[in-house]
Design brief:
This protein has 59 residues and is an alpha+beta fold. The chain is 32% helix and 14% strand. The protein has 1 helix and 2 strands, in the order H-E-E. The protein has a two-stranded antiparallel sheet.
């Protein structure tokens, strides 16, 4: 592979890796308020799972 082909391949890999990572690690962790959940047992104490997101439990 010549230098131009190598540069193009590296650029494509970089762009793909960047595209896959967009949205990674920016929000609350799973189980924390505002984080993703899959049933109430995946939310931290005092929170409940509503629509796939942990929210403060009423009362």
């Amino acid at each position: 592979m010549n230098r131009s082909g190598l540069r193009t391949s590296l650029l494509i890999c970089f762009v793909l890796a960047l595209a896959l990572c967009i949205g990674c690690g920016g929000g609350p962790a799973q189980g924390e308020e505002g984080g993703e959940c899959y049933g109430n047992d995946t939310c931290n104490t005092g929170l409940e799972c509503v629509g796939g997101v942990c929210v403060v439990a009423p009362g």
